[in-house]
Amino acid sequence: MSEKTEKGEKxxxxxxxxxxxxxxxxxxxxxxxxxxxxGDAGTGKTTACLQFLLKGLTSGEKAVYVTVDERPTDxxxxxxxxxxxxxxxxxxxxxxxxxxxxxxxxxxxxxxEREVDVQRxxxxxxxxxxxxxAKRLAIDPVGPLIKADTPSGRSEEQARLLIRLLQTxxxxxxxxxxxxxxxxxxxxxxxxxxxVLSLRxxxxxxxxxxxxxxxxxxxxxxxxxxxxxxxTKGKGIVLLSPYIESAAAVQPAAENGHRPPQTNGSAPTVExxxxxxxxxxxxxxxx
Length: 287
Hints:
By secondary structure, this protein is of the alpha/beta class. It is built from 10 helices and 11 strands.
């Protein structure tokens, strides 16, 4: 491969999978960088992560999905409800779903002992990604990996370490979901990521409105505009026209955007000395 061709491949943008978004950010994300999709509960963060991975999977790439709050089986069901068959990608070894829930459900002891070992998490990820030569990674949500029982100062250190390790030890382009309500300030991972997509949902007059705002996109010339979107079967998030706020009062769609703690998981309980991320093994379809 010539030096010019190699440089062109390196600078080639990575499609987001969100219909209408790529033309707004110079045809996608920069390869090898980490991007955060943030918003309240129910705004479409998991859907955005799924679309990002599906864009690669349907183009012949391999991908890894790290789930913390949602069981892998529930994730597959959620995708199926939108018309996406993730099961086939898992069975063909093109998609690996890693379940981090057992790791969090077994943690106990003093705060210092309960801090997440970020280096170990990335090492776990690297082994899976290297083995399958994955190009895309989604972590949904990223918060528990950097904030679990961690003082605010340590949380910033954990987030900084995670973002740095993702970029230096992995060859993937990454999408990280982060829960945040409208009245909360930007999370530390938003400052560190290469880009931020901010989702929100609110009531306007007699209807609910979902919007996407390209809040930050390093190395990309973007116009700071908020766009309405729908979530449709078979497509997921589809951007519509720019949002124009009316004189009617805008009310948040949810009173509390914090995701309730969950400790469910499909993988068996693991000892802390073992692997943090448990690969999901789907049941074989009956003949």
